[in-house]
């Protein structure tokens, strides 16, 4: 298994999640990766960033990362 942690500006997390979390659900279904976005209360205050954690096998994590980067 592989775990990848990415930092995203708090204001950009909505784009990653999609309306009502739809993009994340589609991403999990399509890639088989687990994707978690930290809660606003867990935000890194000094930088206003949140952590996006992607985990799964190498192919799933790579596919999820590519899809998120394309969406951004």
Q: What gap, in angstroms, lies between the N and C termini?
A: 25 Å
Q: Kindly state the number of beta strands.
A: 3
pLDDT under 50 segments (min length 5)? none
List the domain count as a whole number: 1
Task: Report Rg.
Answer: 12 Å
The CATH superfamily title: K Homology domain, type 1
Quick tags:
40% helix, globular, 3 helices, Ribosomal Protein S8, Chain: A, domain 1, 28% strand, 3-stranded antiparallel β-sheet, 72 residues, single chain, alpha+beta
Secondary structure topology:
Blueprint (H helix, E strand, L loop, with lengths): L1 E8 L3 H5 L4 H10 L2 E4 L11 E8 L1 H14 L1
Antiparallel strand pairs: 1-3, 2-3
Descriptive notes:
With 72 residues, the protein is of the alpha+beta class. It has one domain: Ribosomal Protein S8, Chain: A, domain 1. 40% of the residues lie in helices and 28% in strands. The protein has helices at residues 13-17, 22-31, 58-71; strands at residues 2-9, 34-37, 49-56. The longest helix is centred in the last third of the chain and has 14 residues, at 58-71. It is globular, with a radius of gyration of 12 Å.
């Amino acid at each position: 298994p592989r775990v990848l942690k990415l930092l995203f500006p708090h204001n950009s997390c909505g784009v990653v999640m999609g309306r009502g979390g739809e993009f994340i659900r589609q991403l999990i279904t399509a890639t088989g990766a687990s994707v978690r976005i930290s809660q606003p209360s867990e935000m890194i205050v000094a930088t206003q960033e949140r952590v996006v954690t992607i985990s799964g096998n190498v192919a799933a994590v790579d596919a999820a990362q590519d899809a998120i980067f394309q969406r951004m």
